[in-house]
Specification:
The chain is mainly α and 157 residues long. It is 82% helix and 0% strand.
Length: 157
């Protein structure tokens, strides 16, 4: 936890505003849980370019939440199945990864509809999660900036 805080302070010292850092963290967390393995890096790059956010900040968070993405894939598959009335799913992550290693295109085809349902569930929840994380992180980063960045600038002046 200390290393994460130190990394966030480093980003603030580099001139990233608390608002931009909070948005990068919120997007890194939420985009990092997108239910398509291998897509989150491209999503974070696109978000950083479109919103002019610090790419190392958003990618650091994305990589940090990679285990969370794996933990959420199956629950998102199951919620998507319930939401769209597709019937119960009996699948586990080890089976999906094993199938992907054996036949990637066949696995994509087999899980395409289930994945689309999971993406819809993620898309319903994502805006609320981005807002929640942003509004939780903004005051924290503002305090960090006041404590570690502005104080040093005032002393240097």
């Amino acid at each position: 936890m200390k290393r994460i805080r130190e990394k966030m302070i480093t980003f603030l010292k580099q001139g990233i505003t608390p608002r931009d850092l909070a948005l990068a963290v919120a997007l890194g967390i939420v985009l990092g849980t997108f239910p398509v393995i291998g897509s989150t890096t491209l999503l974070c790059i696109a978000a950083s370019v479109v919103l002019r956010l610090n790419l190392p900040a958003i990618q650091s968070v994305n990589w940090l939440v990679a285990p969370l993405q794996l933990m959420l894939i199956i629950p998102l598959f199951k919620l998507g199945s319930v939401l769209f009335g597709a019937g119960p799913i009996t699948v586990n992550l080890a089976d999906v990864i094993g199938k992907m290693n054996a036949d990637l295109l066949g696995t994509i085809n087999e899980y395409l509809l289930v994945t689309l349902h999971a993406i819809c569930v993620w898309g319903l929840v994502a805006p609320f999660m981005i807002a929640l994380v942003f509004y939780v992180m903004l005051p924290l980063f503002t305090r960090l900036e006041l404590k570690y960045v502005r104080v040093r600038e005032d002393v240097a002046s």
